[in-house]
Amino acid sequence: MAFERVGVVGLGTMGAGIAEVFARAGLRVIGVEADAEALARGRGHLERSTGKAVDKGRLEPGQRDEILGRVTLTTSREDLRDVDLVVEAIPEILDYKIALFKDLDRICEPATVLATNSSSLSVTAIAAATGRPGQVVGMHFFNPAPVMKLVEVVGTVVSAPGVVADVAALAGRLGKTPVAVGDRAGFVVNRLLLPYLNQAAVLMELGVAGRDDIDAAMKLGVGLPMGPFTLLDLIGLDTAYEVMGVLFDETRDRRHAPAPLLREMVTAGLLGRKSGRGFYGDSPQEEPATSRLGTFGVVGGGGDGPTEGPRAAGGGGGLAERLRAAGFKESEDPDVVLRLADRPVIEHAVRLPDPARMVGVHLVGDQVAELASTVLTSEEAANAARDLVKIAGLTPVPCKDRAGFVVDALLFPYLNDAVRMHDSGYASIDDIDAAMRLGCGYPAGPFEMLESLGLAKVRDGLRALYAEYREPAFAPAPLLDQLVTAGVSRFPRP
Ligand SMILES: NC(=O)c1ccc[n+]([C@@H]2O[C@H](COP(=O)([O-])OP(=O)(O)OC[C@H]3O[C@@H](n4cnc5c(N)ncnc54)[C@H](O)[C@@H]3O)[C@@H](O)[C@H]2O)c1
Predict the structure, then answer these.
(1) Nearest atom within ligand 1 for CA of residue 35
(2) From ligand 1's centre to the CA of 487, what distance in Å?
(3) Could you identify the atom of ligand 1 that is nearest to the CA of residue 9?
(4) How much is the pLDDT for 467?
(5) Average pLDDT per consecutive 10 residues, the chain (494 residues; last block may be shorter)
(6) Which residues have CB under 6 Å of ligand 1?
(7) What is the pLDDT at residue 428?
(8) What is the 3-state secondary structure (H, E, C) of the chain?
(9) Which atom of ligand 1 is nearest the CA belonging to 243?
(10) Ligand 1 site-directed mutation target among 8, 114, 239, 440, most atoms within 8 Å of CB
(11) Quick check: 75 and 32 in contact, CB under 8 A?
(12) Closest Cα to atom 6, ligand 1: which residue?
């Protein structure tokens, strides 16, 4: 099927970008908004986005005029009567979408394909509300649409033969990589991404770590393009909240229940970038007071505490060496004991004559040191540990002494979810990896990450998380557990 004229309904965060993508590929676009004011906002999005591309030298001014010239903006849906395809990008609320699709079904020619950009809603339910269920699919772009390469093309049990392939071919023509999937809440990417974002909000609410520290840990420690709170602001907290709600309705998994903080922020109008303020947009978190630095000891890497004396730990990335090189003195009676954490820090701290001096250290990559304070750690020791690791050239991430601290507590359940998703038969390892790389800009897909971290390390980390939080979804996926037991280090691929 040839798609030459397309309609885009809703020109907000996603719709304006989707209209731009179509126009850049030479298609004629009719953009529809709810009212004149929203239409002006949509026009502003399009003009700013293409204007920025010109400023950055990615687009000639003449090309920009051509792109904008292909887009007609209107507040009348009736103008969609001659298009080959409509992509809808209005808010993530099923009733709104069903009402819209019923109307599109009335307006458009019977052969027109109707697509939803929904992140999570049932495409089947939307399709069933129309008189052309075979012609209704999901065409799920990622934010920002002109940049992100992935499009999830969602078929249903009633999709007409060839429709999914035609829409996937169109995505290819737009310069995107299509991944065709079935109709499950959240599809591949949001099913894996949103629980992670939600869990970040939960960790912050529990006081395990602060906003800036969690963002820094995931960005610098794991190499993600941005931390979870920056991403939530980009997505829009209202959209994230609605998607979480849909996931929860389908799965009844407690981890998919939107964090209460999200609801409060959405109600307060703190939606992220689109409203000017979300997790960010206020004053940055206050820097804690600088400590009076003294002597330090580094213990761990298998030992049991200060009885073995301070030493540089094998797996410690040379933390002690870095500190020595920075001019600090090691002592048998140190002001702060940095414990390279291999189990709850408190278990080590209680063996010290002065447990208040112990801070757990977990090095993540070569840039981040998570610093876990126990219930007994003194403020002075926590501050000293923070300043020491900064001087050692690392980014400190202060957190509570909880299993997985920040990074593993957020990363490992996401990896586990990917294993379960694959094991359920929903998507292949390669599709899941490609979807997360291209849809989220991650440096590697979950299976690539699992294999580079080591399957056993992740399995053991999940066991520790499960033991601490008693969350069923943290129990290692049977497939992961069995591969570790069998001594296999790679996931079998066909
Ligand atoms: N935000 C993201 O990162 C993201 C990513 C992928 C998919 N999505 C999905 O895209 C859809 C839109 O989300 P968004 O973040 O762009 O929302 P948004 O709130 O930024 O934009 C929605 C737009 O739809 C318009 N609108 C509302 N009702 C309308 C109607 N009846 N007719 C025409 N326009 C109408 C609004 O005026 C608004 O401009 C949702 O289904 C969402 O799940 C969002």
Answers:
(1) 37
(2) 47
(3) 33
(4) 96
(5) 95 97 98 98 97 96 97 98 98 96 98 96 97 98 95 98 97 97 96 98 97 98 97 97 95 94 97 96 71 79 36 51 81 88 90 94 94 96 93 95 97 98 97 97 97 98 96 97 98 91
(6) 9-15, 32-34, 38, 89-92, 100, 117-119, 140-143, 235-236, 239, 243, 274
(7) 96
(8) CCCCEEEEECCCCCHHHHHHHHHHCCCEEEEECCCHHHHHHHHHHHHHHHHHHHHCCCCCHHHHHHHHHCEEEECCHHHHCCCCEEEECCCCCHHHHHHHHHHHHHHCCCCCEEEECCCCCCHHHHHHCCCCHHHEEEEECCCCCCCCCEEEEECCCCCCCCHHHHHHHHHHHCCCEEEEECCCCCCCHHHHHHHHHHHHHHHHHCCCCCHHHHHHHHHHHCCCCCCHHHHHHHHCHHHHHHHHHHHHHHHCCHHHCCCHHHHHHHHCCCCEHHHCECCCCCCCCCCCCCCCCCCEEEEECCCCCHHHCCCCCHHHCCHHHHHHHCCCCECCCCCEEEEECCCCHHHHHCCCCCHHHEEEEEEECCCEEEEEECCCCCHHHHHHHHHHHHHCCCEEEEEECCCCCCHHHHHHHHHHHHHHHHHCCCCCHHHHHHHHHHHHCCCCCHHHHHHHHCHHHHHHHHHHHHHHHCCHHHCCCHHHHHHHHCCCCCCCCC
(9) 43
(10) 239
(11) yes
(12) 142
> What is the whole-number distance in angstroms between the Cα of residue 38 and the centre of ligand 1?
11
Cα(81) to centroid(ligand 1), Å: 21
pLDDT recorded at residue 283: 63
Active site residues: 119, 140, 152, 190
What global pTM score does this model have? 0.91
Q: Compute the distance from residue 277 Cα to the ligand 1 centre, in Å.
A: 18
pLDDT at 290: 75
The protein residue whose alpha carbon is closest to atom 11 in ligand 1 is 89
